[in-house]
Amino acid sequence: MFTGLVAAMGRVERAERRVEGMRFQIAAPLGALELGESVCVSGACLTVADLSTGAFEADVTRETLERTTLGRLSQGDAVNLERAAALGDRLGGHLLTGHVDGIARVIGVAPAGDAREVEIEVPGELSRFIAEKGSVALDGVSLTVNRVSGARFEIMLIPHTLAVTTLGGIAPGRELNVEVDLLARYVARLLDTDTSWGIQASQRKLG
């Protein structure tokens, strides 16, 4: 699990295409990593497969490449990095799994003093999970939703977030990995199940 508080920006040192997907080597100013541990890379949970001084390697499957923007990364690109949360850590953001739900698109960016107000659009099937004053993760960054209209919503990027994450270079048209709120996903599933159960119960009574 992660919290959406980016620990550092890393940089892609190598992006190697393979039959089964890709392998990345990423410069990671995160301290001593361990083989097999999980690192959130711009919103996607990856497993450390190899280590070198100041860097790690990770494999990305075809499914992850299709669902995320990782397949578009190339040498020199910056990525957001976060190590998995430990029990007892402060939860400064919100709970994230590192399982990307889809790709969001930046519709507009407007200055708001030193901050930036950003309008985002998500795939229609994810809009039900976005709620005003709720949480959403974009490229692994935990953010609060200010307003919602259909499949579009607005967020505010404060100066600190602009300075320490890749969102500092945000611009209209950019695509971002989005993970919806974990609680919203389970509440929606529960409601769907309850509705289905209620319909089946009514049908049994009528029969």
Folded structure, characterized:
The protein is of the alpha+beta class. The chain has two domains: 8-83, Elongation Factor Tu (Ef-tu), domain 3; 102-183, Elongation Factor Tu (Ef-tu), domain 3, CATH 2.40.30. It has helices spanning 62-67, 159-164, 182-206, and strands spanning 8-18, 21-27, 38-41, 44-47, 50-52, 55-61, 78-83, 102-112, 115-121, 135-138, 141-149, 152-157, 175-180. The strands form two sheets. A seven-stranded antiparallel beta sheet has the order 4-3-7-1-2-6-5. The chain has a six-stranded antiparallel barrel with strand order 8-9-12-11-10-13. Strand 3 (38-41) and strand 4 form a beta hairpin. The longest helix is centred in the C-terminal third of the chain and has 25 residues, at 182-206. The relative contact order is 0.18.
Mean pLDDT: 91
In CATH's first tier, which class of the largest domain applies? Answer: Mainly Beta
| Count, helices | 3
Task: Briefly note the structural class of the backbone.
Answer: alpha+beta
CATH fold naming of the largest domain: Elongation Factor Tu (Ef-tu), domain 3
| Largest sheet report | 7 strands, antiparallel
CATH architecture of the largest domain: Beta Barrel
Please state the overall shape, judged from the principal axes of the Cα atoms. globular
What is the radius of gyration computed over CA atoms, rounded to a whole number of angstroms?
A: 19 Å
Which runs of at least 5 residues are low in confidence (pLDDT < 50)? none
The total beta strand count reads 13
Tell me the fraction of residues in β-strands, as a range: 35-45%
**Fraction of residues in helices?**
10-25%
Number of domains: 2
Q: Termini, distance in Å? A: 46 Å
